[in-house]
Design a protein that fits this description.
- Helix 1 runs antiparallel to helix 2 and helix 6 packs parallel to helix 7.
- This protein folds into three domains: about 55 residues, no CATH class; about 110 residues, 3-Layer(aba) Sandwich (Rossmann fold), CATH 3.40.50.720; about 160 residues, Dihydrodipicolinate Reductase, domain 2 (2-Layer Sandwich), CATH 3.30.360.10.
- The strands form three sheets. A nine-stranded mixed sheet has the order 17-16-15-14-10-13-12-11-18. Strands 6-5-4-7-8-9 form a six-stranded parallel sheet, with helices on both faces.
- It is about 35% helix and about 25% strand.
- The radius of gyration is 24 Å and the shape is globular.
- It is of the alpha/beta class.
């Protein structure tokens, strides 16, 4: 029941008197229902609200009791599963919206990590297994090593829980499809964490392109330059647990952006190297070029070996009227033309804006809408990477037909290169 957020208006719906609400609230409060809060902080379950509505005859009095039209919102009970470095970003997100999220539990096989995060979140329960808390949560944020995503996701979805899965969704096409199909059977939201889609700078660049401010777009380039040696997380060095190299683990964010901005890919190539990132089994630096159905080109250079950087994280979208730049270091979106350079957005702060991603996840739970970063769209991005890897190993150009975000993705066998005609 914690999947609904509603506003009740006296013009269309009469609600109960104060006395009826008190009776219904006190009766249901003793049950283990989902907590609903109004502006005054009173707790009601959704069943209590329904009972009160059925007893209705004095709408105005109840409307005042419920906060004068401020709305009734569900506070979702979640677990954070995995308490490593990335969990700190999700900690910031949940702390930014206490009216919508209650962290019931933090989970990590390394209990000191789980305990520390629980303390940071105001004393949530903590443990080594999410199964300890499965009956007490509505949803989970999974922030664990990549090779655990499938099993944890299946456990949670099978138990009727909504899942926000850190990227990548899983390590194989079969595992991804199994998760998607289980979410469908359970009627639950499965969303992939691609926070760049929710970053205000990226969204502004997308609006500029969609509104025609750049003219006809012919090139989009993305640079991500960072030094990323995680001695505390050896799983991130191994292909079997990471899923690949830098392109698979981090570049998947930016393949997703290229597909979101530029549409249906036609073909592409990938070159990767371990040079100066020998701690990784897979590539530490990757260069990808994609050609799209429109004729536009997309480029991504990503490295985990940068001992210094000028660009940091930077996106440039070139069109016939000018170029839009997303400059993460300065926190700005700028338009460059022959006549001028204009800053069209300055972000209020640096960061990943994970709270925007979490808010969208909660919105989808409450409305039943498909997430912007749906599991199906995330699978398409991973298929692009798997085909690029395969073509690189063969020394060929990858055929990427059928891997647009809007293409029919629900078929096995799309992660491999098509057979030559």
């Amino acid at each position: 029941m914690a999947t609904i957020r509603r506003r009740y208006r006296t013009s269309t719906l009469a609600v109960a008197t104060t006395a009826h609400l008190i009776v219904a609230t006190e009766t249901i409060r003793r049950q283990n229902g989902d907590q609903v809060h109004n502006g005054g902080g009173a707790g009601l379950t959704l069943d209590a609200m329904c009972a009160a509505i059925l007893l209705a005859h004095d709408a105005e009095e109840a409307w005042e009791l419920w906060g004068g039209g401020g709305g009734v919102s569900v506070r979702h009970r979640i677990a954070i599963v995995g308490c490593g470095a990335m969990a700190a970003r999700h900690e910031e997100a949940v702390l930014a919206m206490p009216e919508r999220v209650q962290v019931v539990a933090t989970v990590d096989p390394e209990l000191p990590k789980a305990r520390r995060l629980a303390e940071n979140l105001g004393g949530a329960r903590y443990g080594a297994s999410v199964e300890e808390f499965i009956g007490d949560i509505d949803a989970a944020i999974v922030v664990t090593p990549h090779d655990s995503h499938h099993d944890l996701g299946m456990l949670l979805l099978s138990a009727g829980k909504h899942v926000l899965m850190e990227k990548p969704l899983a390590l194989s096409e079969g595992e991804c499809l199994a998760l998607i199909h289980q979410a469908r059977r359970s009627g639950r939201v499965l969303m992939t964490a691609h926070p760049m889609r929710f970053h205000p700078l990226v969204q502004q660049a997308k609006r500029l392109m969609d509104d025609g401010a750049l003219g006809t777009v012919f090139q989009m380039s993305i640079w991500t330059e960072q030094y990323h040696l995680r001695a505390d997380a050896p799983w991130m060095s191994r292909v079997a647990t990471l899923g690949g190299g830098q392109l698979f683990s981090h570049g998947c964010h930016y393949i997703d952006l290229l597909l979101w901005f530029l549409g249906r890919p036609v073909c592409g190539s990938h070159h990767g190297t371990r040079r100066t990132t020998e701690w990784l089994e897979g590539e530490g630096t990757s260069n990808v070029v994609l050609e799209f159905e429109s004729g536009a080109l997309g480029y991504h250079m990503g490295t985990w070996g940068a001992r210094g950087t000028k660009l940091g994280y930077n996106i440039q979208v070139h069109g016939s009227k000018g170029m839009a730049e997303v400059d993460y270091l300065d926190g700005e979106v700028r338009i460059y033309t022959e006549e001028r350079v204009e800053t069209v957005l300055h972000a209020e702060r640096r960061g990943k804006y994970i709270e925007n991603e979490l808010a969208h996840f909660l919105d989808c739970i409450e409305s039943g809408a498909e997430p912007l970063t749906s599991a199906g769209s995330a699978l398409q991005g991973l298929r692009v990477i798997w085909r690029l890897y395969a073509a690189s190993a063969q020394g060929t150009v990858a055929d990427l037909a059928g891997l647009g975000l809007g293409d029919d993705w629900d078929h096995p066998g799309m992660a491999v290169l098509p057979s030559p005609a």
